[in-house]
């Protein structure tokens, strides 16, 4: 899409007046004077999330063990309830979605279930730009199956160090590939892969394919009825605003219902047999058969509250603003920052980018430190990327404009020179 923008603070304020999501900001806790651009790493706390967590505390305080049976078993079936709220974000059936654990533990469950190597098919295809935890989990599963990583793991390389080419991925779908794991959106460059094309090509070749939605769910709508992946995993603390370490999600395509769960736990049992305490696993016949332990209520409740916002405003509305406000940010970078050594490292086309802008600079690390002293919270990724996420639900156009002014000031006055190059633990 072609967007028409203007420079100047008044234009930014006009965009805020026209923004249909502008009032949604009031449902989040925003620190006065702070510009929060790190929602692609940890989303802000919402009043809805706080109220939902407090409600669970109140029910626990009042009911104790009876919490599992009140409100028609709402808390015992909490994963199912959250699945109902999540289904519109990926256009899937609630029975295909579960909420549990972390994204990495869910990936272990998926790999343990779907990676069934044979003499002819035993390789796993991944990409060289993926988040490290996905690679650790994949290598771990390869080793658990008794293989050598170097004999099994195939990594699609990037031509530019930022993005992947779908044709290169498809070219690596050889006859010995058993499973493919890819990110929907690349965590550094925000590239959105053509999931439908890649999934279709994998299935043509009889290959199982799963997706990591960590950097897209809650920002990019997915249509799993069309894409038709075998499985997917995601975290809930980024765009979904479920809170630090919020329970993650997992999708199992219904054609795999009844498939033997690679990892088994008592919450994967059928409800009618769960408390019979048999040592024979009676697996649930939908995605809930892949659940493991007892629900972590305090890590699920804030997500329950946050998802109310998504269901009210709609993921398509969120995506529309996300594309518009990131395009506005890129426009301002082109106008004000390109001659100061800044470079946009993410794809420009709407169909090929997620919810953040990958701003590159030779001094990106020290600039990110300087931004914090200007009360701007960005996200830094090696080797030279400042990730800026103007999250649609709570970031304003005026904040984006002021952010760019600050970025210009830091470089113009060489403020970054006052900061050390020594890396800190979390940034």
Automatic annotation (TrEMBL):
Coiled coil regions, renumbered to chain: none
Cofactor (UniProt): pyridoxal 5'-phosphate
Record-level GO cellular component terms: cytoplasm
Keyword Hydrolase applies: yes
Record flagged with keyword Hydrolase: yes
GO biological process: anthranilate metabolic process; L-kynurenine catabolic process; L-tryptophan catabolic process to kynurenine; NAD+ biosynthetic process; quinolinate biosynthetic process
Residues binding pyridoxal 5'-phosphate, per UniProt: 103-104, 131-134, 212, 215, 237, 266, 294
Xref: Pfam families: KYNU_C
Record GO terms (molecular function): kynureninase activity; pyridoxal phosphate binding
EC code(s) of this entry: 3.7.1.3
Pathway terms, separated by semicolons: Amino-acid degradation; L-kynurenine degradation; L-alanine and anthranilate from L-kynurenine: step 1/1; Cofactor biosynthesis; NAD(+) biosynthesis; quinolinate from L-kynurenine: step 2/3
Keywords recorded for this protein, A-Z: Hydrolase, Pyridine nucleotide biosynthesis, Pyridoxal phosphate
Modified residues (N6-(pyridoxal phosphate)lysine): 238
Superkingdom, natural source: Bacteria
EC supergroup of this enzyme: hydrolase
Reaction catalyzed: 3-hydroxy-L-kynurenine + H2O = 3-hydroxyanthranilate + L-alanine + H(+); L-kynurenine + H2O = anthranilate + L-alanine + H(+)
PANTHER family from the UniProt entry: KYNURENINASE
Function: Catalyzes the cleavage of L-kynurenine (L-Kyn) and L-3-hydroxykynurenine (L-3OHKyn) into anthranilic acid (AA) and 3-hydroxyanthranilic acid (3-OHAA), respectively.
Family: Belongs to the kynureninase family.
Subunit structure: Homodimer.
Protein name: Kynureninase
Annotated organism of origin: Alkaliphilus oremlandii (strain OhILAs) (Clostridium oremlandii (strain OhILAs))
